[in-house]
Protein backbone atom coordinates (compact mmCIF):
# COMPACT_ATOMS: atom_id res chain seq x y z
CA UNK A 1 0.00 0.00 0.00
CA UNK A 2 1.42 3.39 -1.00
CA UNK A 3 0.82 6.21 1.41
CA UNK A 4 0.44 9.78 0.13
CA UNK A 5 3.00 11.73 2.19
CA UNK A 6 1.77 15.15 1.02
CA UNK A 7 0.01 17.22 3.65
CA UNK A 8 -3.80 17.51 3.27
CA UNK A 9 -3.59 21.25 2.84
CA UNK A 10 -1.04 21.05 0.00
CA UNK A 11 -2.99 18.24 -1.68
CA UNK A 12 -6.20 20.27 -1.46
CA UNK A 13 -4.49 23.36 -2.82
CA UNK A 14 -3.11 21.41 -5.79
CA UNK A 15 -6.52 19.94 -6.51
CA UNK A 16 -8.06 23.42 -6.38
CA UNK A 17 -5.39 24.76 -8.75
CA UNK A 18 -5.95 21.86 -11.15
CA UNK A 19 -9.70 22.53 -11.03
CA UNK A 20 -9.14 26.20 -11.78
CA UNK A 21 -6.91 25.40 -14.75
CA UNK A 22 -9.45 22.93 -16.10
CA UNK A 23 -12.15 25.58 -15.72
CA UNK A 24 -10.03 28.06 -17.65
CA UNK A 25 -9.42 25.46 -20.33
CA UNK A 26 -13.15 24.87 -20.61
CA UNK A 27 -13.85 28.59 -20.72
CA UNK A 28 -11.29 29.36 -23.42
CA UNK A 29 -13.34 27.92 -26.29
CA UNK A 30 -16.37 29.77 -24.98
CA UNK A 31 -14.50 33.05 -24.94
CA UNK A 32 -13.25 32.42 -28.48
CA UNK A 33 -16.79 31.46 -29.50
CA UNK A 34 -18.14 34.76 -28.12
CA UNK A 35 -15.44 36.71 -29.94
CA UNK A 36 -16.24 34.95 -33.20
CA UNK A 37 -19.93 35.88 -32.82
CA UNK A 38 -19.04 39.53 -32.27
CA UNK A 39 -16.73 39.53 -35.28
CA UNK A 40 -19.37 37.89 -37.48
CA UNK A 41 -21.99 40.38 -36.33
CA UNK A 42 -19.61 43.24 -37.17
CA UNK A 43 -19.18 41.79 -40.66
CA UNK A 44 -22.95 41.79 -41.13
CA UNK A 45 -23.05 45.35 -39.85
CA UNK A 46 -20.38 46.47 -42.31
CA UNK A 47 -22.14 44.64 -45.13
CA UNK A 48 -25.40 46.38 -44.31
CA UNK A 49 -23.74 49.81 -44.11
CA UNK A 50 -21.95 49.54 -47.44
CA UNK A 51 -25.09 48.22 -49.13
CA UNK A 52 -27.36 50.84 -47.56
CA UNK A 53 -25.16 53.87 -48.10
CA UNK A 54 -22.79 53.04 -50.96
CA UNK A 55 -24.27 50.39 -53.27
CA UNK A 56 -26.13 51.53 -56.40
CA UNK A 57 -29.90 51.38 -55.95
CA UNK A 58 -30.21 48.71 -58.63
CA UNK A 59 -27.92 46.35 -56.69
CA UNK A 60 -29.26 46.78 -53.17
CA UNK A 61 -31.99 44.14 -53.26
CA UNK A 62 -29.61 41.44 -54.49
CA UNK A 63 -26.96 42.39 -51.94
CA UNK A 64 -29.41 42.49 -49.03
CA UNK A 65 -30.75 39.11 -50.11
CA UNK A 66 -27.28 37.55 -49.99
CA UNK A 67 -26.56 39.28 -46.68
CA UNK A 68 -29.83 37.96 -45.24
CA UNK A 69 -28.75 34.40 -46.00
CA UNK A 70 -25.48 34.93 -44.15
CA UNK A 71 -27.36 36.45 -41.23
CA UNK A 72 -29.76 33.48 -41.09
CA UNK A 73 -26.85 31.05 -40.94
CA UNK A 74 -25.25 33.07 -38.12
CA UNK A 75 -28.48 33.19 -36.10
CA UNK A 76 -28.89 29.43 -36.43
CA UNK A 77 -25.26 28.73 -35.58
CA UNK A 78 -25.40 30.87 -32.44
CA UNK A 79 -28.90 30.24 -31.14
CA UNK A 80 -29.45 32.01 -27.85
CA UNK A 81 -27.49 35.13 -28.81
CA UNK A 82 -29.56 38.26 -29.36
CA UNK A 83 -27.16 40.21 -31.60
CA UNK A 84 -27.38 38.02 -34.72
CA UNK A 85 -31.18 38.05 -34.44
CA UNK A 86 -31.25 41.84 -34.39
CA UNK A 87 -29.00 42.15 -37.42
CA UNK A 88 -30.88 39.48 -39.32
CA UNK A 89 -34.03 41.48 -38.64
CA UNK A 90 -32.43 44.75 -39.76
CA UNK A 91 -31.22 43.18 -43.00
CA UNK A 92 -34.62 41.59 -43.72
CA UNK A 93 -36.32 44.92 -43.02
CA UNK A 94 -33.97 46.64 -45.45
CA UNK A 95 -34.59 43.94 -48.04
CA UNK A 96 -38.33 44.47 -47.59
CA UNK A 97 -37.83 48.18 -48.17
CA UNK A 98 -36.09 47.47 -51.46
CA UNK A 99 -38.77 45.02 -52.60
CA UNK A 100 -41.71 47.20 -51.58
CA UNK A 101 -45.39 46.38 -52.02
CA UNK A 102 -47.15 43.30 -50.70
CA UNK A 103 -44.11 41.17 -51.46
CA UNK A 104 -42.36 42.87 -48.55
CA UNK A 105 -44.90 41.76 -45.91
CA UNK A 106 -43.53 38.23 -45.35
CA UNK A 107 -40.08 39.73 -44.81
CA UNK A 108 -41.21 42.31 -42.26
CA UNK A 109 -43.18 39.63 -40.42
CA UNK A 110 -40.02 37.55 -40.19
CA UNK A 111 -38.09 40.59 -38.96
CA UNK A 112 -40.77 41.27 -36.33
CA UNK A 113 -40.39 37.74 -34.96
CA UNK A 114 -36.61 38.07 -34.85
CA UNK A 115 -36.74 41.34 -32.93
CA UNK A 116 -39.21 39.85 -30.46
CA UNK A 117 -36.92 36.87 -29.91
CA UNK A 118 -33.95 39.18 -29.34
CA UNK A 119 -35.93 41.19 -26.77
CA UNK A 120 -36.78 37.99 -24.92
CA UNK A 121 -33.08 37.11 -24.74
CA UNK A 122 -31.69 40.56 -23.93
CA UNK A 123 -33.85 43.68 -24.38
CA UNK A 124 -30.84 45.99 -24.02
CA UNK A 125 -28.70 44.26 -26.63
CA UNK A 126 -26.91 46.58 -29.07
CA UNK A 127 -28.08 49.64 -27.10
CA UNK A 128 -31.76 48.81 -27.42
CA UNK A 129 -31.66 48.23 -31.19
CA UNK A 130 -34.31 45.51 -31.03
CA UNK A 131 -36.79 47.91 -29.40
CA UNK A 132 -35.88 50.59 -31.91
CA UNK A 133 -36.11 48.40 -35.00
CA UNK A 134 -39.36 46.76 -33.91
CA UNK A 135 -40.85 50.19 -33.22
CA UNK A 136 -39.92 51.31 -36.72
CA UNK A 137 -41.75 48.33 -38.19
CA UNK A 138 -44.88 49.11 -36.19
CA UNK A 139 -45.14 52.62 -37.63
CA UNK A 140 -44.03 51.85 -41.18
CA UNK A 141 -46.02 48.66 -41.83
CA UNK A 142 -49.72 49.16 -42.69
CA UNK A 143 -52.26 48.30 -40.02
CA UNK A 144 -54.95 45.64 -40.05
CA UNK A 145 -56.19 44.00 -42.26
CA UNK A 146 -53.09 44.31 -44.46
CA UNK A 147 -50.36 44.25 -41.83
CA UNK A 148 -49.63 44.55 -38.12
CA UNK A 149 -48.86 48.28 -37.98
CA UNK A 150 -49.80 50.05 -34.75
CA UNK A 151 -48.76 53.62 -33.92
CA UNK A 152 -49.33 53.20 -30.17
CA UNK A 153 -47.08 50.14 -30.01
CA UNK A 154 -44.52 51.97 -32.14
CA UNK A 155 -44.42 54.89 -29.70
CA UNK A 156 -44.01 52.56 -26.71
CA UNK A 157 -41.15 50.62 -28.30
CA UNK A 158 -39.31 53.71 -29.55
CA UNK A 159 -39.54 55.28 -26.10
CA UNK A 160 -38.09 52.10 -24.60
CA UNK A 161 -35.19 52.36 -27.04
CA UNK A 162 -34.62 55.95 -25.94
CA UNK A 163 -34.67 54.89 -22.30
CA UNK A 164 -31.90 52.36 -23.03
CA UNK A 165 -29.81 54.75 -25.14
CA UNK A 166 -30.98 58.35 -24.61
CA UNK A 167 -27.98 59.89 -26.42
CA UNK A 168 -27.97 57.45 -29.34
CA UNK A 169 -28.16 58.64 -32.92
CA UNK A 170 -30.57 55.94 -34.08
CA UNK A 171 -32.88 56.12 -31.06
CA UNK A 172 -33.28 59.88 -31.46
CA UNK A 173 -33.49 59.84 -35.24
CA UNK A 174 -36.22 57.21 -35.43
CA UNK A 175 -38.29 58.74 -32.66
CA UNK A 176 -38.02 62.05 -34.49
CA UNK A 177 -39.04 60.39 -37.73
CA UNK A 178 -42.01 58.77 -35.99
CA UNK A 179 -43.15 62.15 -34.69
CA UNK A 180 -42.83 63.74 -38.14
CA UNK A 181 -44.79 60.92 -39.76
CA UNK A 182 -47.54 61.17 -37.15
CA UNK A 183 -48.01 64.90 -37.66
CA UNK A 184 -45.97 66.18 -34.71
CA UNK A 185 -43.11 67.83 -36.54
CA UNK A 186 -42.50 70.51 -33.92
CA UNK A 187 -42.05 67.84 -31.25
CA UNK A 188 -39.61 66.01 -33.50
CA UNK A 189 -37.14 68.90 -33.76
CA UNK A 190 -35.24 68.37 -30.45
CA UNK A 191 -34.85 64.64 -31.13
CA UNK A 192 -33.48 65.22 -34.61
CA UNK A 193 -31.11 67.88 -33.30
CA UNK A 194 -29.95 65.44 -30.64
CA UNK A 195 -29.36 62.82 -33.33
CA UNK A 196 -27.09 65.27 -35.15
CA UNK A 197 -25.16 65.91 -31.94
CA UNK A 198 -24.92 62.23 -30.93
CA UNK A 199 -21.44 60.88 -30.18
CA UNK A 200 -19.66 58.91 -32.88
CA UNK A 201 -20.01 55.14 -32.64
CA UNK A 202 -16.69 53.24 -32.69
CA UNK A 203 -16.07 51.61 -36.04
CA UNK A 204 -19.23 53.02 -37.64
CA UNK A 205 -18.23 56.22 -39.47
CA UNK A 206 -20.15 55.30 -42.62
CA UNK A 207 -23.40 54.58 -40.77
CA UNK A 208 -23.02 57.71 -38.63
CA UNK A 209 -22.48 59.93 -41.67
CA UNK A 210 -25.44 58.39 -43.49
CA UNK A 211 -27.75 58.75 -40.50
CA UNK A 212 -26.69 62.35 -39.88
CA UNK A 213 -27.42 63.20 -43.51
CA UNK A 214 -30.90 61.68 -43.09
CA UNK A 215 -31.43 63.51 -39.80
CA UNK A 216 -30.39 66.81 -41.37
CA UNK A 217 -32.86 66.41 -44.23
CA UNK A 218 -35.67 65.38 -41.92
CA UNK A 219 -34.93 68.29 -39.58
CA UNK A 220 -35.31 70.73 -42.46
CA UNK A 221 -38.65 69.13 -43.28
CA UNK A 222 -39.78 69.28 -39.64
CA UNK A 223 -38.89 72.95 -39.32
CA UNK A 224 -40.52 73.81 -42.63
CA UNK A 225 -43.86 72.15 -41.91
Automatic annotation (TrEMBL):
Keyword Signal: yes
Protein's name in the database: Tetratricopeptide repeat protein
Region described as Disordered: spans on this chain: 197-225
Top-level division of the source organism's lineage: Bacteria
Keyword Signal attributed: yes
Signal sequence region: 1-34
Basic and acidic residues compositional bias, start-end: 201-216
Native organism taxonomy: Bacteria, Pseudomonadati, Pseudomonadota, Betaproteobacteria, Burkholderiales
UniProtKB keywords: Signal
Amino acid sequence: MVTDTRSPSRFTARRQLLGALLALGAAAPLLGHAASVDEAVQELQRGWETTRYQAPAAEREKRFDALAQRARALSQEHAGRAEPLVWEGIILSSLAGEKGGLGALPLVKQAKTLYEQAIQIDPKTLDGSAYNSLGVLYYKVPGWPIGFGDKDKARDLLQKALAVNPQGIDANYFYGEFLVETGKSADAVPYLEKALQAPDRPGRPLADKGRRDEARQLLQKAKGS
